[in-house]
Give the backbone structure.
Amino acid sequence: MTVIEFETLDSTNQYARDNFKDLADLTMICARTQTAGRGRLGRVWQSPRDVNIYASMVMKDLESGFHAGCITGLAGITALREFAPQINFFFKWPNDIYVRDRKIAGILCESAGFTNGKIDGVVAGIGLNINFAPKDLRLLDNPATSLYELTNEKFNLKKVINRLAFWFQEYYIAYTKESGSIFELWKQDNRLLGQKLTVITPKGEVITGIFSNISNDGAMLLEVNNATIAFHCGDVKIDRELIDWDNIHL
Ligand code: BTN
């Protein structure tokens, strides 16, 4: 496992993709700040210097981009739990880490190319809100939180990066031995399963239903008027009034 740290990058995902062939499998690229950090669906990822973690994982030995997100998400959620065991972190499909109705981490998986229809590898970027101050969090477009806001404590970023790298390696190795078990672990932490949610598709359609399951290829299954709709992409809206918070152990 190699961790390469930069002072400044446009985007750790971009660097990892541009240099994919020269980087070893199981490399993590970090930057103290990003000048063009990007989120899913073309959004910007705010990346102030020395405040949060911006990291991308190089994965060459896997079957799908969806699995790269599971591994990276599990590494992120496990590291967060080590630093704040009292907080209930969970995954919100497709792969955000949430605390109640606020986002603390996001993941962006990008393919590194295909050869003869088979994926060459994946770059999975993760942004974790660690020391983001509440006043700055309130300036973001969507409800967000940070370890600092949740615990009133500032965290040493290097220590969190070390644990993130450790867990990334652990889950990646576990995956190469038995990929199904990683999917099951990841699915268990999707605590909004069973809840009533609204999905906004990339075309702007708004569909409400019961989040009944996640298919083996990562699609969200929503029950709407006795039919099951599978979503491979989209945004999930949490209506805090509709969620049975007690039942998801928060
Ligand atoms: C999202 O929730 O929209 C995904 C956010 C992913 C942000 C991370 S920060 C490190 C890596 N580099 C990027 O440009 N984006 C990802």
In short: The domain at 196-248 is CATH 2.30.30 (SH3 type barrels.). The radius of gyration is 17 Å. The pocket of biotin is lined by residues 11-13, 34, 37-40, 43, 45, 54-56, 96, 106-108, 125-127 (CB under 6 Å).
